[in-house]
Amino acid sequence: MPERLQLAAQSEAETINFKEEDVYDRLMEMTKGRGPDRCIDAVGCEAHGSGSFDSVLDKAKATVMLATDRAHVIRQTITCCRKQGTISVPGVYVGMIDKFPFGPAMNKGLTIRMGQTHVQRYLQPLLEKIEEGEIDPSFIITHRRALEDGPEMYKTFRDKEDGCIKVVLKP
Predict the structure, then answer these.
(1) Listed residue (97, 39, 47, 102) closest to 68, CA to CA
(2) Domains of the chain, CATH where assigned
(3) Is a pLDDT exceeding 60 seen at residue 61?
(4) Would you state the pLDDT for residue 147?
(5) How far is residue 119's CA from residue 80's CA, in Å, rounded to a whole number?
(6) CA angle 86-60-24, nearest 5°?
């Protein structure tokens, strides 16, 4: 099981490995054909869907600079989300999305909420909760390194090597 799925499972989240089963079919099974009330695209333009025609096309277009974003996940959330459901997109997109299923989103009456996370707004209250012991985020840290190792560790994180999920750099 990939590290990220293990992390989700440890948090008692139900996980679906898109490499092993069809996400749409599994979600329909889990919701008795209705679809989830809410879907989250936390991946954004770096989605790595595998096997589906649209994910292969997205990757090919990005490779030859005909597109900037791989929108497989946002398309999938629109397909999976129930009528009148809500899609949240904290994942980052940087350009134009090709083959965006606007008609299905509109006909389902979906609410789509998106935007960059307001880090400055939430940073202080979250740090206070960590300092008071209400939240312990240490479970997510997989690597601790010196500040000068930053460029190397970014590559490790980017390339999903060595089980890297979160790196803490110390000056």
Answers:
(1) 97
(2) 3-114 (3.40.50.720), 119-170 (no CATH)
(3) yes
(4) 96
(5) 29
(6) 35
